[in-house]
Amino acid sequence: MSEILPIKQRALGDKVAGELRRLIITGRYAPGTSLVEGHLAEQFDLSRGPIRDALKILAFEGLIDTNRRSATVVGLGGDDIDELFSLRGSLERLALEIGLNKDRSRLIDGLRVPLEQMRRAREERDPDAFTAADVRFHSVFYDVAGHRRLADVWAQYRPTIEVLLLASNERYEDLGPSVRAHEVLARLIESGEPEAVFDELRAHLDNARLRLRAPYTQTPSH
């Protein structure tokens, strides 16, 4: 029984981190806000263990600075989004290049399900489902590449990118243009023309960067 408890605690820590990440990225916890373990434990009605785990996760992601008993929100600014997407662009190009050379058929097949999920979510006006499917689409590149360390870096920043995407998707009444952009990328991957694929991926991610950055243009970067 004792072996199960740390797993349960880590799962709770992940859930707390998810909620705090959302509050930080959407600006409900502004930069400079102090996050105190004891206070958070009371708010979440949990022991301090999961809270401590959550703060470690967020510190690793660069969203907070920590000391022994408290943490301070760093938050995100426009420069942070530029950094995230310059990193994401390099990661995805490499993952896609490996995947195209390794198993293009698996790559093509893997994109079909998230694409269909995006279409359905658009019809149902469900930004949560749409965002999850969008991230799954891009995660296929890493799955097919089978490059563990590359996937580890994506896993570190994926939650932050996912919350940013969700906040952006919630502002749009029609997510059709995003569906079509992913369809174009998928068709080029199927065509097997690497340079066309990489050019489209670069434009695709830069468009996402500009869209996510827009709300931060008037917000000073830290």
Number of extended strands: 3
Largest sheet descriptor: 3 strands, antiparallel
Helix proportion: over 70%
What does the radius of gyration come to?
A: 19 Å
Q: First CA to last CA: what distance? A: 45 Å
Number of helices: 8
Mean pLDDT: 90
Strand fraction: under 5%
Instruction: Give the H and E element order.
Output: HEHHEEHHHHH
Structural class: mainly alpha
- Record the strand order, biggest sheet: 1-3-2
Which stretches of 5+ consecutive residues score pLDDT under 50? 1-7
Indicate the overall shape. Answer: globular
Written description of the protein model:
This protein is mainly alpha-helical. About 75% of the residues lie in helices and about 5% in strands. The protein has 8 helices and 3 strands, in the order αβααββααααα. The protein has helices at about 5-25, 35-45, 50-60, 80-125, 125-145, 150-170, 175-190, 195-215; strands at about 35, 65, 70-75. It has a 3-stranded antiparallel sheet. Strand 2 (about 65) and strand 3 form a beta hairpin. Residues about 1-5 have low confidence and may be disordered.
